[in-house]
Amino acid sequence: MCKLKQLTYQRFQQGFSLIEVLVALVILVIGLIGIFNLHIVAKRGSFESFQQTQASYYANDIINRMKLNRTRLTNYSGDYTGRLSKPSKGCDVAVGAVSLCSPVETQAWDLYQWEQSFIGAAETVGGQNIGGLDSPTACIDIDGNTVTVAVAWRGIREGAGTTYSDNECGKDDLGLRRRIFVLSTVII
């Protein structure tokens, strides 16, 4: 009799029940959804971080250009959105470059090149700029030797409502605030 109970017990315990399989699948799906959401959050954070790094680079770039053209320092002041037209004379400082530019020509070229880089004009797909910042604007304020560069761009989500200065540098056409990077330095 004891042997019969043992055989019967083994016969009913040979596999998983459908309920056990469904519970395991539900737990697995919940875990996979969590991992997928974590991946999305990481990608957004990576994009935001990359955009801020780019903004920092562009602010430093124009400051270095202004240091090389100190005589025209006050003329770099203004708001920039990537709409400057190409100057008639290119003033690239490259190996083998033979054109000499005046400080005025250098300033025009610096601002044009800077705008083209932060709107991503060097990288295009289907006629659309894909490099640079997302919907960028920039402002340069000069007070004596103190130079402040503010670079604003559109983040993935709306920002906290920060702008720079009274002219609301960084405000887009719809009035929504965006991310902003501000760098201030002294050029002597």
UniProtKB/TrEMBL annotation:
The keyword NAD does not apply. The gene is pilV. It holds the Pfam family N_methyl. It comes from Shewanella cutis. This is Type IV pilus modification protein PilV. The chain crosses the membrane at residues 21-42. Keywords: Membrane, Transmembrane, Transmembrane helix.
